[in-house]
Design goal:
This protein has about 300 residues and is mainly alpha-helical. The chain folds into three domains: about 90 residues, no CATH class; about 70 residues, no CATH class; about 90 residues, no CATH class. Helix content is about 40%, strand content about 5%. It contains 13 helices and two strands, in the order βααβααααααααααα. A two-stranded parallel sheet has the order 1-2. Helix 10 crosses helix 11. The mean pLDDT is about 85.
Length: about 300
């Protein structure tokens, strides 16, 4: 919509809250828990297609970049810098000891713990001393990389996992990781969190992650790299002679492989719906030689796993 929508919360909506079209996050307090920080900034990493909020077909068709590709994090307490430069990721957290009577700024209560002192009120000017804008690249923040590294260390050090990987028993090792490693209170590893921490733009499987961890693959291929590989296989199989139409054929191949909407339109033969589809339009379809309009969907259904391209 054209109206600015602002939501202010204290300790709420930091986890589990899903608002995929959010473009700006503001941090107005210090954060010391890496888990909390990952969850909070994760509110902005959700992907979104802004065409879903439009009802005007002509306006939808006119959008050239309808997908959310970035968000801004306004950090007023240098939390990003803290987790990038100062936080000790190797520190073993220890529980605080109960304070003796008379220690601290508050009164002692049952069990030996001290109540917090009275709140501090600052009534003077609140001046921003400096402003710095930093773009986070494809490698993500250090806190994301360290999250993935902790997972790598955990599975590498597990003899049962390592032995199963060496033996090529992938069903066994994946079942073990799902039961014994994922969603545990220590780190709450999930496939989605690991994907974001690894800065991968597509859905990756647990097998891919383990292959990367144990050095069986050098890294994760991007969605476009996989699409290029699949299209190269198609070209080798179909051997198209229309050299000038190769770009249009590739565009059709990628659109059909990655877009649920394009697949539905093509499969149902509702081609007029492409007129309001910005990702792949009626003009794009006309540029594809007729025989490939049916050949490509048939090939993809038979030989290409679409799950790997899901976000």
């Amino acid at each position: 919509t054209s109206k600015a929508r602002i939501c202010v919360t204290v300790g709420m909506m930091t986890t589990g809250y899903d608002c995929p079209d959010i473009l700006n996050l503001g941090l107005f307090r210090p954060i010391f828990s890496p888990t909390d920080f990952i969850q909070i900034k994760g509110r902005g990493t959700r992907k979104h297609d802004f065409r879903e909020q439009l009802f005007d077909g002509a306006l939808k068709a006119s959008l050239t970049a309808p997908h959310k590709t970035a968000f801004k994090l306004f950090d007023f307490f240098a939390n990003c810098a803290y987790f990038e430069d100062q936080f000790d990721y190797d520190q073993v957290i220890k529980l605080p000891k109960p304070k003796a009577s008379g220690e601290g700024g508050g009164k002692t209560v049952g069990g030996g713990f001290s109540e917090p002192a009275a709140p501090y009120d600052h009534l003077g000017a609140d001046i921003i001393s400096s402003i710095k804008e930093e773009v986070i690249g494809v490698d993500g923040m250090k806190i994301d990389r360290m999250f993935f590294k902790r997972f790598e260390d955990a599975v590498r050090e597990n003899k049962e996992i390592a032995d199963a990987v060496d033996a090529g028993e992938w069903d066994r090792v994946i079942d073990y990781v799902n039961r014994e490693v994922l969603d545990k209170p220590t780190e709450y590893y999930t496939l989605d969190k690991l994907r974001r921490a690894a800065a991968v733009d597509r859905r990756i499987s647990m097998r891919e992650i383990l292959e990367k961890v144990f050095g069986l693959i050098p890294g994760f291929k991007s969605k476009d790299e996989l699409l290029e590989e699949e299209f190269a296989k198609f070209v080798a199989d179909a051997k198209p002679q229309e050299a000038e139409a190769i770009p249009a054929i590739k565009n059709y191949f990628k659109a059909y492989a990655t877009s649920d909407r394009v697949r539905h339109i093509i499969d149902s033969k509702h081609f007029t719906d492409l007129a309001t589809n910005a990702a792949f339009s009626t003009r794009d379809l006309r540029a594809v030689p007729p025989k490939y309009r049916t050949l490509i969907p048939e090939y993809i259904k038979d030989y290409v796993s679409l799950n790997q391209f899901a976000a």
